Every structure is written in C-alpha cells, then in structure tokens.
Amino acid sequence: MGGIGLRERKKQRTRRALVEAAVRLFEEKGFDETTVAEIAAAVEVAPRTFFSYFPSKEDVLFFDTRSRFERALAIIAGRRPGEPLVDLLVRVGDAVLVHLDGTLRQDDRDTGGVDGTEDAEDADSAELAEDARLALRLAPARYDLITSVPALQARALHLLFDVQRELSEALCRAYKGELDPIEAAAVVGVFVGGAKMAAMASRDRGESPEMIWAAARRGVQIAVRGLGSLDDPGRRG
Amino acid sequence: MGGIGLRERKKQRTRRALVEAAVRLFEEKGFDETTVAEIAAAVEVAPRTFFSYFPSKEDVLFFDTRSRFERALAIIAGRRPGEPLVDLLVRVGDAVLVHLDGTLRQDDRDTGGVDGTEDAEDADSAELAEDARLALRLAPARYDLITSVPALQARALHLLFDVQRELSEALCRAYKGELDPIEAAAVVGVFVGGAKMAAMASRDRGESPEMIWAAARRGVQIAVRGLGSLDDPGRRG
DNA sequence: CTCCGAAGTTGCAATGGCTGAAAAAAAGCA
DNA sequence: TGCTTTTTTTCAGCCATTGCAACTTCGGAG
C-alpha cells in the first residue's frame, strides 16, 4: 500500500499544494481570517476535499509530524548496545529538531524493523524527501504561525503530548529491565519538558534562533543533572 | 470590583449552574453529543449567555483553573527565606494538586501582595470556597472527561502550558540572582513534565488514584535527581 | 481496446460552535 | 419613581466539520 502509480503521485501533489497554499494564506491574511474554502479554491479542489486530506484546518500545518516522529521511534528502537539513556535521548532530540536535512539525505535506513516492498519503499522515501523539502521551505512561516496562533499552539501541544506517550513506550522497550513504564514516561516528560519550556522562554524574550537552540540545550542539561543540582550552594563557580 | 450585591451573587450562581449542568450532560450523553444550547436550556438561560461566561464549550470544565493557579503563584511569591528550590516546588505541587480542601479552609491569606476592599474580599473568598466545593463534587467526573475527551485534553494541555510560563516568571522573581529566566523555565518544565507524564502513564495502565499519585511523585523524584542518575550502574541497590 | 471495480472527488444539506449588534430586562442608585 | 449601568436575550450570520449520494478517474483484467 506504500505508493506508486499516477494516482498516488497526484494525491501527494495535491496534499502538498494544500499545505503550501494554506501556509501562504495564513501568513498573508492570518489563520482565523483564512477559510478552508479559500485554501481549497487556491488549489482548485472542492472544499470538501480538504477534509479528506486533513482532519482539521489546524492539522494542515502538521503534515509531516507523523513521519518526523517515526524517525524518532526508529532511533530509539535502534538503541546502540549499552548506550546510556542520556546519549540516546540527545541523539533523538538532535535528529528530530535539526529537522533540516536528515530526510533529505538517504543514508539512514539504519534502525527499527520496518517493512516495505521494493517499489513502494522507493516511492515512499521519495515522498518523504519531497515532504522534507517542503518543510524546510515553510519552516520560518510555520514557526511564526505555531508560536503566535493560539489554536495552532494548542494543536501542537496536543500532538506533542501524544508523541511523548509513544516515545515513552518505545523507550521502555529499548531499556527493558532497566526502566519501568512509569520511569520511562517520567524520563521523556522531564527531557521534553525541560527543552520545551527553556526554548519557549528564550523565544518569548525575542532571542535569536541560535540562542533559542542554546536555551533548549541548557534545558536538557538541567533535566539531566536534576533540579537538585541547582540547590547546591556555590555552583556557577 | 470584587463582588457584593445581588447582581454579582446571581451571576456566580448562574456560572456554577452552567458548570454543573454541563458536567452532568457531558457525563450522560458525552461531550460531543451535548450542545451548548442544551446546557443553556438546562439552566434556563439563552444560549448566547453561555458564551458571556465561558469563551468556549471546553472552558466550562476549567472554571476554577485560574484561581487554583493563583494560589500557586502566591506560594511561589511567598518563598520562605533561603528555601531550596525543590522544597518550594513540592509545596506548590501539593497545594495545587491535593486540590481538595485548601480553598475550603480559610487560614491562608498568607502570601503575595494582593488587594481587595473589606467587603469585596469577604465576598470573593466566599465565592472561592463555593467554587472549591463545586470542584470537589465534580472532581471524579471532570477527571474522566478530561482524560478521555481529546478536545478537553487539548484544552487542558494548553492551559497548563500557559500556566507554566507564568510560574516560570514567578520562580525567576522569587529566586532573583539564583535563577535566570531560561533556567527558571527549564525548572518548571522539568518538574511539571516529569510529574505529568509519569501520572499519565500510570493512569493509562489503569492504576488506582493512589498509584497515580505515587507515580507522579516518582516522576518528580526523577526530575529532582536528574536523568543522569538513571544511567548510574547499580542504582536500585 | 474496452469494461469493471476500487479509490477519490464533488455537491448538497445540515449541525452546531461562536460572534457582533441592537433591543429588552434587571439591578443599583438618586 | 426615574435614570444609569449591567446583563441577558434576540437575531442574523459566518464558518468548520460531517454524512451521503452521485460522479469521475485510475488501474487492471479480459
């Protein structure tokens, strides 16, 4: 069921056209001021069709969340033997967030026991690369929108939450015997929570992308060392 | 502007009636199957009036979030001199989450420089107590709804996110010179993230309320000790 | 090459959340 | 009681989202 054939190709093209039109319109007129009908019209599709591609107006902005996230799962499943928890988490974080190339390069069918027939796999990875290209192009606009439109922020948080759950399970599996389910969940929550809030705080202060990234790293560092370490008198020394 | 007078009292009564009717209907027929019109009808108000009390159908379930959260802010602002970060956070967590009494008792206008005239303050705290009573009564239903209805879960996550931001700022103020804004945000993210995901994992496994609470504590513990501590060979000893 | 079935698209109609504006009712006050 | 301020109600309407049935297109058999 992967995807060859004219049909599938056309579908993907429409999907991306919808994403692109949506982002452009959201930027130009604002999210609330843009109607689904307008997005559909821009792509010359019936409004009804929009909803066969995306479950809601918000979701069009998260078209690649699933595949991005599956990379993360694969990395966890492919834990290197004896790899310490923190190292693995950092690898996952980098892979997911650097989000630029990665999918564009083609050298990483490393991990996870996945499936796929010959043709289908080629077609799929082509689509994946195309999606990555699109994501790259839309990245700044998307970022602005998600951080400034409440409805999109809410959607993002909810998606992230669900992702975290699945990551927990994967982590638990990868560290069977070392982490119980509760611990695994806590680990993911602590890690993601620290990075997320630190980055957000940095962003709120109007800092540059580099500084936001640095803030996220500091957040992770605090997660790794533990809150207790902040109480030590005479740190910063 | 606090609230004495028939007018204000009536308003609060209507507000609570809306909450109560909404929760009852959501439980009976499901969230999606309940219309705002029905909730309004149950309280004998015009549908339009519902939206002058709550900005959305979801928000009716979070009627006391704001005041609950303000307690948290007050506790942070009232940091005991020299109190270690972790201790304060635990106090905040307990105060907010035990959520049962607390507001019902009347012995805690301790912290934070707030305002209020004589009468208004009395009236307000009466309302607060009434809200707490209502919250207590609705707690189980509310819990079920929020954890099972996606729209409500999303709303809860978004509210929590905004709260975390403000908590970060408060923390930064309470530990001026000890925590910079990024650190403060990371601290809150790590703490809340750990507790949240651990509790959720416990819940997902169908565990009892006590175990969920215990899980949250373990999440906090991991947040405090740091992820790094989990890599130490021979913990669990 | 043509015809069939699957997959996808469209149009239509309806539901229901949410909003703005202006009229009507209630509460507070002189 | 008569005037002012708040709230509620009415009314009209936008738009997201959905179910359904008709219609089109693609891919593959014969």
Structural overview:
The structure is a homodimer of 237-residue chains. The longest helix of chain A has 31 residues, at 118-148. Mean pLDDT of chain A is 88; it is low at 102-120. With 237 residues, chain A is mostly helical. The first copy, chain A, has 9 helices and no strands. Chain A is globular. Chains A and B meet through helix 5, helix 7, helix 8 and helix 9 of A and helix 5, helix 7, helix 8 and helix 9 of B. Chain A binds a DNA duplex (30 and 30 nucleotides) through helix 1 and helix 3.
Summary tags:
homodimer; mainly alpha; 9 helices; 69% helix; DNA-binding
Measure the end-to-end span of chain A.
Answer: 59 Å
Order of helices and strands of chain A: HHHHHHHHH
Largest sheet report of chain A: none
Tell me the β content of chain A.
under 5%
Biggest interface pair, counts: A-B, 52 and 52 residues
Q: Quaternary state, please?
A: homodimer
Tell me how many strands of chain A there are: 0
* Average pLDDT score of chain A: 88
The coarse silhouette of chain A is globular
Unreliably modeled segments of chain A: 102-120
Report a brief summary of the structure.
Chain A is an all-alpha fold. The first copy, chain A, has helices at residues 5-29, 36-43, 47-53, 65-77, 85-98, 118-148, 150-174, 181-204, 209-225. The radius of gyration of chain A is 20 Å and the shape is globular.
What are the SSEs and their pairings?
The structure is a homodimer of 237-residue chains.
Chain A: H1 5-29, H2 36-43, H3 47-53, H4 65-77, H5 85-98, H6 118-148, H7 150-174, H8 181-204, H9 209-225
The structure holds a DNA duplex (30 and 30 nucleotides).
